[in-house]
Specification:
Blueprint lengths: L1 H10 L9 H5 L13 H9 L3 H6 L2 H7 L5 H17 L3 H14 L4 H13 L3 H14 L5 H12 L3 H10 L8 H13 L3 H14 L4 H13 L3 H14 L7 H16 L1
Helix pairs in contact: 6-7, 7-8, 8-9, 9-10, 10-11, 11-12, 12-13, 12-14, 13-14, 14-15, 15-16
Length: 264
């Protein structure tokens, strides 16, 4: 069940939603979480061997050939061990193993991401917030942590805290469209539509094919009574959409309404 919940988090970004902040919280961070299909493959990853070699080496050969592990290597091993515990649905042991990994190397991003995902799955928001705040401090160039922290605050109804997190870290991520779009969306939800429009436009300069930002820009333009701007944004979203895009009906509906507004 835990594994299914984690996978569901990664798939949520493909579902239609008008509140785009929910889309931003999800990512493909777990697409490689369960790549190793056997214990021998995980051992192979640890020792830089092929799976076959990992199965055939004797314990005496390993003692002879292995060098003492660094704290980073120990943390990586703990992370891989936690994956095994998750496969076995032993979440408590997986969590304690991930805590061990972070004690060995608090910059281990994969271990921190996986621990946060488990904590959020269990609705342990207080612990998740603490882990994310530490992650921002020790790995300040990793944009997922402030995005997830902001979204966690949103889940708890602490909108101002979420906005503070994103604004505080914006200088490091001005070249990341997802971050700019997230900030635009939070401004939009807080009815700061001029700020929202500015950041949607910045995001679109980086990724003009991303329909989330075109739709967000269209919705913001509507709030500013800029019917022409909204029509242009929705038209671009329509042009970028595939026929099976779940947001296409919404875009077509808003386009029709904008035409009506412009004819009045």
């Amino acid at each position: 069940m835990i594994i299914q919940n984690i996978k569901a988090m990664t798939l949520a970004s493909h579902k239609p939603a008008l509140h785009l902040a929910a889309l931003l919280f999800c990512s493909n961070m777990f697409t490689s979480v369960l790549q190793a299909s056997s214990l021998s493959e995980i051992r192979a990853l640890t020792y830089n061997e092929s799976p076959h070699q990992a199965d055939t080496l004797s314990s005496s050969e390993l003692i002879v050939t292995l060098h003492p592990l660094s704290t980073k290597s120990i943390a990586e091993n703990n992370y891989r061990q936690a994956l095994i515990y998750i496969e076995q649905n032993d979440v408590n042991t997986a969590q304690s193993t991930l805590w061990q990994a972070l004690r060995q190397d608090n910059t281990n991003i994969l271990a921190r991401e996986l621990l946060v995902s488990l904590l959020l799955t269990q609705n342990n928001f207080k612990a998740a917030i603490s882990v994310l705040e530490t992650g921002i401090a020790v790995t300040p160039t990793h944009s997922k942590f402030p995005l997830w922290l902001a979204q966690t605050h949103i889940k708890l109804g602490a909108f101002e805290r979420a906005l503070t997190v994103l604004e505080k870290n914006i200088t490091r991520f001005r070249q990341q469209s997802t971050y700019l779009g997230a900030l635009a969306n939070f401004y939009q939800q807080n009815e700061r539509h001029n700020d929202a429009r500015d950041y949607y436009l910045q995001a679109l300069k980086l990724t003009p094919q991303d329909n989330r930002w075109w739709i967000g820009l269209g919705m913001t333009a509507e709030e500013l009574n800029d019917w022409s701007g909204a029509q242009t944004a929705y038209q671009r979203a329509k042009e970028n959409s595939f026929m099976d895009d779940p947001l296409l009906p919404f875009v077509q509906q808003r386009l029709s309404m904008m035409r009506t507004q412009l004819q009045q």
